[in-house]
Design goal:
Elements lengths: L1 H7 L5 H21 L5 H16 L6 H32 L1
Helix pairs in contact: 2-3
């Protein structure tokens, strides 16, 4: 994950990396204060994409960003389904 976010999405200079870190931290802090659960990985990935796009849109490797988005979309229903199945199994065992 670190290699994908740090090197494959876009190439960041220190100023862009700092901006991405601060914006992700602000979103995470705000969401925490409001009691909204967020994924820190999703926050920093989105911030890195945004920081990379400020240079020029072609600086972002959109294929990598698309793969990350697809993983996010697929993860939620799979985790929900797995949680449901495991709860049913554990309820039968109890």
């Amino acid at each position: 994950m670190i290699q994908t976010v740090g090197m494959r999405i876009t190439t960041l200079r220190p100023v862009h990396g700092s901006a991405a870190e601060v914006s992700a931290a602000a979103v995470i802090e705000a969401a925490s204060n409001l009691g909204i659960p967020v994924s820190t990985t999703q926050c920093i990935s989105g911030a890195v994409i945004g920081a990379g796009a400020t240079k020029r849109l072609s600086a972002v490797r959109w294929g990598v960003a698309r793969n990350i988005l697809a993983a996010w979309v697929v993860t939620f229903p799979i985790c929900a389904g797995l949680g449901w199945v495991l709860e049913k199994i554990l309820a039968l065992a109890a």
